[in-house]
Amino acid sequence: MDSKSLSPQESLDLISKVITDARNSFKDNGIIYIMWGILITLAGAGQFLLLHFEQHSISYFPYFVMPVGGIISIVYYTKKKRRGSNIISTLVGRIWTAVLINILILGFVFATQLGNSLTPIILLLIGIGTLASGTALKENMLLLSGLSINVMGLLCFFIDYAYHSLIIAAAGFFFTLIPGIILNKKK
Amino acid sequence: MSFKDLNPLLHSQLRLSVISYLISNTESDFNQLKEITDATSGNLSVQLKKLEEAGYLVIKKGFKNNYQHTAITITKKGIDAFEAYVEALKGYIKP
Fold first, then answer.
1. Tally of domains in chain B
2. CB-CB under 8 Å, B16 with A3
3. Which residues form the domain of B23?
4. Tell me, what CATH number does B34's domain have?
5. pTM score over 0.90
6. What are the chain A neighbours of B67 within 8 Å (beta carbons)?
7. What DSSP string describes B9-52?
């Protein structure tokens, strides 16, 4: 690239390309969605199985994988940030940090108070996070996934608690893991 | 057709790329800008110097993990200049 002068249209095209490239540089994060998809699916399915076999006292144990996922995400994004960050990556990173911290506090501190409302609230938070990520990254698939998780969260209020964990597993599989795999293939 | 209303400092391929990138990124460094713009080190240094002299950028040389590191950030003046440049461009593009 040299320092030649440009026509106005070339200038606009150049600005658009550089800004789009900057946005796309953050899009290669399908891998983190895959990880969370696996963790959410396993945690939900694990809890469902434990409840099915009447292991109520330890039914929340599978969710201990969530802090592990949080640590892996922090390491991943810290390394990524060393290669440069932009407004979009900062925004998405902060949204998910807030979502994760709130889920951990709700799940491990307020679970008893929230009772049957815990799952819908967690799904709503994940849904809003996915929706915001999809909007920031201009990724319609994530946008649609976020909306779907949001709807699943609201539906949970009408579904028996025994099936809530199964809904979490389904949300993780269909709307986090699969979009993650597709994102990863697209990069 | 002359583009006299367009800021001459920004109306160049390399300098505009640098400023556009810094607009959408909170921070950058010399190697990253070199990679993105595909410019030679010499040319990039000269253009960065011009932008710095205009007060559009702040260039800080130092060390990161024992390696020489040149951090580059856009200033408020640089952001204002970019916004004014885009506004002026619109005038040329609009029918």
1. 1
2. no
3. 13-89
4. 1.10.10.10
5. no
6. none
7. TTSSHHHHHHHHHHHHBS-EEHHHHHHHHT--HHHHHHHHHHHH
